[in-house]
Amino acid sequence: MGDILATLTSAMSLLRRCRANAALTIQLFSQLFHFVNMWLFNQLVLQPGLGLCTRRWGIRLGRRLSRIEAWAEKQGLELAADCHLARILQTSLLLQSQKQSLQDISTISAHCFKLNSLQLHAILQQYSPEPGESPVPPEVLNELVNVARKTTDDAVRQEGHEVRLEEDHDLNLPFLLPEDGYSSDIIRGIPTGLPEFVEPMARSGMCRLLVNNASNGDWNIHLVEAPSANNSFGWDGNTPQRAAAAAPATPSTPMDKPEIMTITLNKQNSGMGLSIVAARVSRWAVAGQD
């Protein structure tokens, strides 16, 4: 259990050190929680020889999963953990609960609503009672399976999925790129540690770090919502035509080159009477940013 928590902590530390987007972080840990859920559940229902369908193992499983839940809560990931660990958590509750009379059916159905009829049947059929505990009565097993068939199974089919015994290896959710919340939206100026990071490359002649003291420190000033040569879609997911139609009219000059303007001055005397000034292109708020 310590190795799992250490892996989760290491992954979170890396994402925070790299200033990963919060929405991306939640999606990445949703994948990790789903893998934990999938692997544990499939081991339990597909490997009856391991003898995991007992009340004792239900208690152990619940205790160990509670440590993952506590870790997720400290990291702000409690919703992702509750959602993607739900099936194995409810399995541990099923193994620990009373399953001897028809009065227990409503309690089990209320707390184990994520388990479909095939999964409930496999777990209860493989259940090994503890010393002094009676086996699960057939009428209780059949009634629990019938309730799950009318509720959970119907919900699964309405979502367009197949009712299966094992958990799918893949989390069937689209991976979404957030529109905002990136580090470039919030940082200003030169982040702490950037000069030290660049310094070895600057010594070798690979690059130079130049500080523009006239800049307002905005890292997004040159980011525009326009399709690039390597991307046939705009940042908003529209086609290039739609992105162009939605965007305000801008000069056709490439954004990485200054706009060239020809100015003719008529010299009358020996001197021009001019001094060097900071020119500013109309589309930039800060002088000299081109």
Explain what this protein looks like in three dimensions.
The chain has 290 residues and is an all-alpha fold. Helices cover 48% and strands 0% of the residues. It has helices at residues 2-17, 22-46, 55-74, 78-84, 86-96, 104-111, 117-126, 138-150, 152-158, 183-186, 194-203, 240-246.
Q: So what's the oligomer here?
A: single chain
Q: Could you state the order of secondary-structure elements as H and E?
A: HHHHHHHHHHHH
Judged by helices, strands and strand pairing, the structural class is: mainly alpha
- In DSSP terms (H or I, runs of 4 or more residues), the helix count works out at 12
How much of the polypeptide forms β-strand, as a percent range? under 5%
Total beta strand runs = 0
Biggest β-sheet strands, sense, barrel: none
The geometry reads as elongated
Low-pLDDT runs of 5+ residues are 231-253, 270-290
Intertermini distance: 55 Å
Using only CA atoms, what is the Rg?
A: 31 Å
Averaging pLDDT over every residue, what do you get? 81
Name the helicity range: 40-55%
